[in-house]
């Protein structure tokens, strides 16, 4: 029977994901020569060629992709084994580390943790604020157990390394200065704002979400100012410097700011989709499952509030 070495298979998977031997070595805290040696030994153990030269780099062979396709099932089963063992050893106790983007922390994660503290006081949830893409890097690296992020920046639902759970379709409302001519216009559409100066981040998730929503409405937004924090964005809107799309999760608990009018877009309401993700198989662990259930409850409560 062929000898399968889990550690070497993990190195091969990391090379597939990172693209180069150098990047693989950095991710695994190894030297490039050690990575190459381990993969050479794995090829000998399996009796197939795993890598081939492509210019100054290497690429995985079809045999390597075949090996990894089966290895993903092994990795998922090992995650399930770890999860079940954790549940057996810890029972109601345990620690779940969560990486979450900024607006999801007060809107979803804090209510979920409050509920868990009452229902499962031995469960320790550790929160780490992270940008959407960074949350998945932390999950892949094993630094967190759950990533709370946006579907647009999540790995594909077909990626076998992750299990994804849709949580919430968060509507995007438009923030206008109180004296804006369209501040109280009936049936406001996003296309009505095509000629306005816009405020959004220069790069990253919110830049992409804003431009995608506007392009879907038939125009490319003119970026007048760049900011990533909602406090700064809404202050500029209040000062009449431009308008902005704002997720309802960010604006629902806003205090003050009487100079800003939040308008619901009538016919072409854009939304951002919030998802939770864990490494495949880990969702069966009792501690992670409880956190996911609490997040689902918090998301359902948030949607009920948004609809009223």
UniProtKB/TrEMBL annotation:
Keywords: DNA-binding, Transcription, Transcription regulation. Residues 4-61 form the HTH lysR-type domain. PROSITE patterns: HTH_LYSR. One of its GO terms (molecular function) is DNA binding. GO terms for cellular component: protein-DNA complex. The keyword Transcription applies. The keyword Cell wall biogenesis/degradation does not apply. Belongs to the LysR transcriptional regulatory family. This is DNA-binding transcriptional LysR family regulator. It comes from Streptomyces nymphaeiformis.
